[in-house]
Write a structure and sequence with these properties.
single chain; alpha+beta; Nucleoside Triphosphate Pyrophosphohydrolase; 2 domains; eight-stranded mixed sheet; four-stranded mixed sheet; NUDIX_hydrolase_CS; hydrolase activity; Nudix hydrolase domain-containing protein
Length: 239
């Protein structure tokens, strides 16, 4: 049956993000509550086989966000936070993160957040992908980045973060072990850190392979063919 329309509860302003609809499946959407940062809806969804309709599919749209794993040029350590969050039971290691503002691209937001939260700027940026945070409930999209060779920014913008944060510097091995021990308490943070470490390892592998290939190529070209050596031996004996 059609759900009767209701007046949504608007708290602090309307959500201005896009309306999620999946072609051939989303039949309707009723907003229950919204803020400038998120919108909670009930979707009317047709199953993939077309045989059933679900009238109360709970869906949450959120602003897209970024997470940035930063590594400094001086010493090569990763810069992380130890911080608390409302949804966590304990303090956690965390990378830089925040919402993407209206009109910003993911990379622009990542650069801004890194400047605001850590006062860093980086010449080397690596996009690690865009990911849905909750495949059946929404939650926006995460844009993950690895920023390398970071240095102190010439000008730092003011941060609007409300949580208390403590900056920590970790080697790659220390960060990897913290990841494996479960000391990074949110799945998006965990994914960003793991992807960054994998990216670094793959980069090192490619660099090593390129050096080995270049060395083999150089060795091949410095080797004298056997026929040349034979001719020189004959010439030396005056034959």
């Amino acid at each position: 049956a059609e759900r009767a329309p209701r007046e949504p509860l608007v708290l602090g302003g309307e959500y201005r993000g896009p309306q999620w609809r999946k072609p051939n499946q989303t039949l309707g959407a009723t907003t229950l509550v919204e803020t400038p940062f998120a919108r909670v809806q009930l979707h009317r969804v047709q199953t993939e086989d077309g045989q059933h309709v679900i009238d109360d599919w709970l869906w949450v749209d959120e602003r897209d966000a970024v997470n940035v794993v930063a590594r400094v040029k001086d010493g090569g350590r990763y810069v992380m936070f130890t911080q608390s969050k409302y949804g966590l039971e304990h303090d956690s290691l965390a990378p830089v993160g925040g919402f993407i503002n209206d009109g910003e691209a993911g990379l622009q937001a990542a650069m801004r957040e890194l400047n605001e939260e850590l006062g860093l700027e980086c010449p080397t940026w690596n996009s690690l992908g865009r990911y849905r945070t909750a495949v059946n409930r929404g939650g926006g999209w995460l844009h993950a980045f690895f920023a390398d060779d970071c240095v102190a920014a010439t000008r730092r913008k003011k941060s609007d973060d409300l949580e208390k944060q403590m900056v920590v510097h970790l080697t790659e091995e220390e960060l990897l072990q913290a990841l494996l021990r479960g000391e990074i308490g949110e799945v998006k943070w965990t994914a960003a850190v793991a992807l960054s470490i994998l990216h670094r390892q793959q980069h090192h592998h490619h660099q090593r392979a390129a050096r080995e290939q270049a060395a083999a190529h150089q060795h091949q070209h410095t080797q004298k063919p056997e026929a040349v050596w034979q001719w020189r031996r004959i010439a030396d004996r005056g034959i």
